[in-house]
Structures are given as C-alpha cells and as structure tokens.
Design goal:
With 439 residues, this protein is mainly alpha-helical. Helices cover 76% and strands 2% of the residues.
C-alpha cells in the first residue's frame, strides 16, 4: 500500500469530545508501534492497520467538511432579511458553494495522487476555517458570496479523505470502510441542515458559521496528530495531472457511466433539499427554518444504509446495489406526487418517509459507484474520485437552480417531476449495455 509513515500521537478533541479524540490518538499511536511522538515506517507493500477510531476520524472529517456546503440552506430567509439581499441574490449562496465544490474537485482533488494527502487535508482545513469565519463576519452579500465560493473550494478536503480511506483499507474490506466514511459524509450533509436551522433560529446565522469554523479547526488538529502520511502515486506535472482526467474519462466506460448516473440522481436530490425550506415556509405549512432543517433527521436515517451497501457490494457486486438504490430513489420521489391528496399533517409524514427512502437510495448508489471507480486504477484514485464527484456536484448545482425555477413556475409537482425523471434517466444509464458506454 501507499502509506509509509504515521504522524504524531493524537491529542485534543473532535467536535468537542476529548474522549473521542483520545481514543483516536491511542489507536493511531498503536498502529505506529508505540505511543511516542514521531514517525514509524512500514513496508510500502504491507496492509496498514486501519483501526475503528481512525475510521471514526476519517468519517468525522468528511462529514464536518462537507457539512459546510449546506449550513446556509435553512438560513437563507434569515440571511436575506439581515443583510438586505433579495431572495434571488441570496439564493446564489448555496449555488456558489456547490459550484465551488465542483471546481475544487476538478482542480484540487487530483493533487491527492501527486502529493501527500495528509498535507493537503491540513491545508484545506486551515483555508476552510478562514472562509467560514469570513462568511460569519460578512456585512453584505458580496463578501458572503465570495466566502461561499471559498467554502466550496476548501470543503473538498472531504474528497481527499475518502480516497485516503480507500487506500488505507485492505481490498476485502474496502467497500465496508468506504461505506462507513461515506455515512459520515452524508450525515454531515443531512444533519447540517438540522443544526443550522436550530442555531440560526436561537442564536443567529453568524453563530452557525463561527461554530462551523471551530469544528473544522478541531478536525484539523486531530488530523495533524492522528493521520498517517501517504506516498504519491504519480509524479506527473500539474498540467499533465489535469489532462490525465480526460484520458481516464476516455479510457474507462465504467467511470463515465458512474459519473453520469450519479450526476443525474443528484439533480433530484438537490432539487428536493434546496426547495424544501421555501415550500414549508409557504401555505399550508408556514414552518420556520428550524422545522425545515429538522427534516434532515429523516434523511439521515437513510445514511445508515451506507455500510450495508458497502458489504453487499463486496459480496454480491456493486452493480446490483446501484440498480436497487436507483429503484428505491425513484419510488420514493414518485410517492411525493401523492401529497396533494393528503392533509397537511399527512403531507409532512409523506415528506419524511420519502426523504428516508430516497436518501437511502442515493447513498447506496454512491457507495456502489465509488466501489466500482476505486477498483479501476488504484494509483489514480484521487483523479477517479474527482471525475465521479464533479459529475455529482454539477448535478447538485443544476438541481438547486432548476428546483427553484420549477417551484416558482409549477409548484411542488414540478420539483417532483424533475426528481423522478432524472432518477429514471440514471437507472437507464445503469441498465444500458456496458459495451455501448465503453466505446
């Protein structure tokens, strides 16, 4: 494997829990063969010891960093009132964070194959901390939009953490380990809305950004003291590294299929979550940001399927998981069309149940796609991951924009129609004969 060193023993805390970080520190030190500060060397070809607490660190880092993209969504109404921005202008905040994320994956994530992933994670943690503090201090929409773009770029540390987990995991456990880390990532996406809705309503939106900055700073410290170092798998120049993305796309039909299917599925996922708060704020619900954010709890239940999806991918193959996940997402999105037939309380229950279903489907499909992609070329995992997630977040950004337009023009039924049609298109991509897309 590519891991050649362990870093210093761990201290500090993650998310305010000194005990959790101490456990990470103790376990990581054990893998180095001692509890002292310093480094230990292992054979490049030996499988590293991937302890449960190191997996916890990776999952927490992925979740907290990607959560930075979504804190703003339930707070948009409060933000607009406080800084005097129009609804259309403030709607650019989540769009810029997602576009920044896609741009960061494209331009920065491939560096994980060229340089030590641990160093890249630490640099991005520092930049993300500063960007979140800028967002919390913004007095006008201009600075907030600039900070949002920077947040999106730096939050791609999550996309350095996931390939790091795949590299550390032995082949027979890779699906399960990646699934566990991806559970952390998706929980970060979903629970970020719950947390930010509550904090914004009770303490103000600026407090949310400051608290997020503090959590990333703590993760950075824990990663500095607990993560192993990684050996570069390529020595290509940066321009050649970016050019190699096109080579990989042309060369591997499985990569093209995974990126296209996940991107299409992400359109509906993003359209739902980007318009939910606006829909719930209007009649007949008249609910605030905290209630809108609380729906993230329903979606978070679906995230727990990730380790199971990884285990099924390991035993039965990821292709089966992608199709099952897509079919579950389609059924869940389609069920939302029944909402006009129900009472207000019935519609809320339907929204919660559908969120559980399609989040489970989206997560299972993503884990299976990652299992497929990471098996293509082990030495190019960061670049392969970049292609997959650029496709995914282009779909997310498109879903946010299209969802808002459709909600304004045709109401909730327009959003549901978009989600169902793009999910069906993703299933067609997965069912299409492989030879067709491999050409």
């Amino acid at each position: 494997m590519n891991v050649i060193q362990k870093s210093h023993t761990s201290g500090g805390n993650i998310g305010g829990s000194a005990a959790a970080t101490a456990a990470i520190a103790a376990s990581t030190s054990t893998t180095t063969g001692g509890g002292k500060a310093g480094t230990a060397h292992a054979s490049q070809h030996a499988d590293p010891v991937l302890s449960p607490s190191l997996i916890l660190l990776l999952a927490a880092g992925a979740g907290l960093s990607v959560a930075s993209l979504y804190y703003s969504q339930p707070m948009l109404g409060v933000l607009a009132d406080d800084i005097g921005a129009s609804e259309r202008t403030v709607g650019m905040v989540p769009m810029l964070t997602q576009l920044g994320y896609a741009l960061g994956i494209l331009l920065l994530a491939p560096l994980g194959d060229r340089f030590d992933r641990r160093r890249i994670i630490l640099i991005k943690a520092a930049v993300l901390t500063v960007a979140l503090l800028m967002a919390g201090a913004a007095s006008g929409i201009g600075l907030l939009l600039a900070a949002s773009l920077a947040v999106g770029l730096a939050a791609t540390m999550a996309q350095d953490i996931v390939p790091a987990a795949a590299t550390l995991a032995p082949e027979h456990r890779r699906g399960k380990v990646v699934g566990t880390v991806m559970t952390g990532l998706l929980l970060g996406i979903l629970l970020s809305r719950v947390l930010s809705g509550f904090v914004a309503q009770h303490f103000g939106w600026r407090a949310m950004f400051v608290g997020a900055a503090a959590s990333i700073a703590l993760i950075g410290v824990a990663a500095w003291r607990g993560l192993p170092r990684f050996k570069a798998t390529t020595h290509l120049a940066y321009s050649a590294l970016l050019a190699s993305l096109l080579v990989l796309i042309r060369k591997h039909g499985a990569l093209r299929r995974a990126a296209l299917a996940q991107g299409l599925l992400s359109v509906g996922f993003s359209a739902f979550w980007s318009t939910l708060a606006v829909m719930l704020h209007a009649a007949p619900f008249h609910l605030g940001s905290a209630a809108a954010g609380a729906f993230g709890l329903a979606g978070a239940a679906g995230a727990l399927a990730a380790p199971l999806a990884g285990r099924i991918s390991d035993s039965k193959g990821p292709e089966l998981v992608t199709r099952l996940g897509l079919m579950l997402a389609i059924v869940s999105f389609a069920a939302l069309a029944l909402a006009p037939m129900l009472s207000s309380s019935g519609q809320l229950w339907l929204l919660a149940l559908a969120a559980i279903g399609f989040d489970l489907g989206v997560q299972a499909t993503l884990v299976a796609h990652q299992t497929i992609v990471y098996s293509i070329e082990p030495g190019a995992r960061s670049r392969l991951n970049a292609v997959l997630f650029v496709g995914m977040f282009i779909g997310m950004a498109g879903g946010a924009g299209l969802g808002s337009l459709l909600l304004a023009q045709w109401g909730w039924s327009g959003v549901v129609a978009l989600a169902v049609s793009t999910s069906l298109a993703a299933l067609v991509v997965r069912m299409w004969p492989g030879a067709k897309l491999a050409r």
